[in-house]
User: Fold these one by one.
Assistant:
Number 1:
Amino acid sequence: MPETTWPDGVIARYLTVGSATVDLTSQLNVMTPPEPFATLAACSGCPASKEFSHWRLVWQPDGGQAEEHHPAAAVTDAHAWAQSHAGTCRAMPRPA
């Protein structure tokens, strides 16, 4: 398989059974620059994608909830989803 250059912003790439790719990218918006607010896993062969927020609701000792920043957990979850999807997706990438 020939080596190809990854598109700008792709932080990880998985090859699917059908030879498409599942790319992980950081999602940015005007509210959080320069820190990403989520990690997106998107398949180039089918419409499947999933966004993993870097913010998690965490229970507090007083019984309430608070949002906490956990980007590493989101990236780990995105990798797991991408690898699972890549292992089963048989959609082929659209020809260039």
Note: The chain has a mean pLDDT of 90.
Number 2:
Amino acid sequence: MTSNGLTLHSPAKLNLFLHIVGRRPNGYHLLQSVFQLIDWCDTLTLKPISENEVRRINPLPGVPVESDLVVRAARLLKEFYQVESGIEIDLKKEIPMGAGLGGGSSDAATTLIGLNLIWDLQLSTEALAKLGLELGADVPFFIFGQNAFVEGVGETIQEIALETRDFLILFPGQGIATTRIFHDPELTRDHAPITIDGFLASPWSFQTNDCQAVAMRICPEVKQALDWIGQALPGSKPRMTGSGSSVFAVLEPKTDIVKLENLLQNLPKGWVSRIVRGLNKNPAYNLTSSD
């Protein structure tokens, strides 16, 4: 790190499956999922400033500063630990918003990881994760920083070893609000729990996302994207990630990538595609100085 600050990469994630196994009295849903880190990243730069404030530059269009997760994360950490220092935040978005890829949660986690270093707080990942849960259910996973079997409302995280695989992701250009999915009366909320061993017995054949049926009804583009992958990659068993609207398929080693990339040139207008590789560790922990 230099006086010019710290530049970090915030990765997206895929839910290899997503089961809703119950609900707490306060309305929070109890989940089971396996979170897979992928090499689709936003870029976050944190720069110390002399003013005792959190300053956001190049804000996201349509996102008020008060709602911006990186600003909220910085303010939460600053206030909780009474930090008398200022920070300037610049975020370059690559991960689509409202896509079920966890970009906002990852950016919040990366902010906490970076500021823990810049402000020399020396907090453990457990302490950061506890604070991060106040910002969103997925934030503790990104602070944990490794592929994981996740339960509860996102706070119960166990490391899981996954073979490195490639994935095709399609974002059909239309985001879905997570709250709309989880408030839907037709959402499945009683999926039978599974075990880590049960998942690991056949990790790439798990295809269930309990949010998918509701998402397809709310957002027809989800089904269109699933159908597109089904036609381009027969037998690939595509599924939705998170609460949508992105969908993905695991690519077999024999997949003709050149042919697939040619097909992707003809996607409907507004769709975004990416062929990604799984990661084993959050690259935000590869701390680098900015120029």
Note: The longest strand covers residues 29-49.
Number 3:
Amino acid sequence: MHVHLICVGRRMPTWVEAGYQEYAKRLPPECTLQLIEVEPMRRGKTGNRPGEAELAREDEAQRILKAIPKGAGVVALDGRGEGWTTPDLAGQLKDWLRGGRDQALLVGGPDGLAPSCLARADRCWSLSRLTFPHPLVRVILAEQVYRAWTLLNGHPYHRG
């Protein structure tokens, strides 16, 4: 089973790539984490013009939706989604592994996900009631998927 992390944005800072890779490489072949980067829409340098955020979300949504692997389950990361604890995520991961169906985690850009991405999702998950910069979300997700896997497998990494 593969977890496909579909994120808006390219050319991340070195610390983001290093943090993501650190956790992704720890996962076993039966539960891999694969990053799919989607090109963001170019935005104006002076801030959002009226309607630009909606246009950006829809533009990025087209690429996000095309990047979802055929047959994969879809979880959209959205601040209005369900709040999962680490044991909740471990339960989700257990179900995903048992089902053998790849999963796609959708992470929007600075303006979030378009309604079409939220509609396509089987579930919506909120990492926190806090707002995180979208590059940091990659690292958090990689670490949390690894932590959930360790919890399922009785490894000492997770001390709940």
Note: The longest helix spans residues 134-152.
Number 4:
Amino acid sequence: MTTTEATMSWLLDADPAVRWQAERDLLGAEDAVWQATRARVAAEGFGAALLAAQDPDGRWAGGAHFPGGFFESDEAEQPGQPWTATSWSLNQLREWGVPAQALSDTAERLERNCRWEYDDMPFWGGEVDVCINAFTLANGAWLGADVSRLVRWFPEHRLDDGGWNCEAEEGDSVRSSFHSTLNALRGMLFYEQSTGDTSLQSTRHAGEEYLLRRQLVFRASTGELVDGFVTHFVYPSRYRYSALTALDYFRDASRTDGTAPDPRIEPAVGLVRAARQADGTWLQGPPLPGRTWFPVDVAEGDPSRWLTLIGTRVLDWAEGRSLPDA
């Protein structure tokens, strides 16, 4: 099954954050074409709206990982968490392709004005949570901040089985987590791509092996498919692991490292392939609960441009389809 002409037109008739990636990853457009679309992300649509929500001190929603005053509010008792604070906002802008220069002196303002909710630690030094540190490593590399502490942190905190777990710092687990490990890998890969520093490459490869030994979707203890989240495809995925987000990472890593797809990804590929609709789209899953700045995708059950973009490029890579000539 290939993407229909109607589905491709639908993808291109989208926010520039979606369109430039479809042009580059699905159509194989010339660099000048997709780069011109990418340049629009900071000036219109999702990117411009989120940039406009930034506080004068460089933060979003007055906090690092949670909005200011969150823990003293009724919202702290509700399911989920808000997705409006600084780390989440930076993640989205970076993933949408907003250029660092569009954020001006944000790195310096955050250095002065933003501290983590955990122990009031300095923003660019990270804290103790591996997912937060992975986001900060990538966002710092993107904005040119000093993230040298975090470069040292990831090898030092990798668990014996090869991955990472947010609960390990509290002594609650000695086993790696799918979610935490994938977030760590994504942060290290983006850091390497942005800076050219390969000092974390061996650590990254070891973490990849942790997931590949489980064929991306199976429990180490029983060999059974991981319940729930592995087949839960949703955009934005935030911190959540799924077969789709894992494969999108491995596609990116494979292209960076110049390697072929590892055969052990096939069970995850099968899950993504099975979720594809007859028209070549993927449907939005149940969104993660929590306050957002504004919607960036459709309601549950509707065809999702974001998931269709990601699912199509993952299957094109895994199944060896070449990009069309630009």
Note: The chain is about 45% helix and 0% strand.
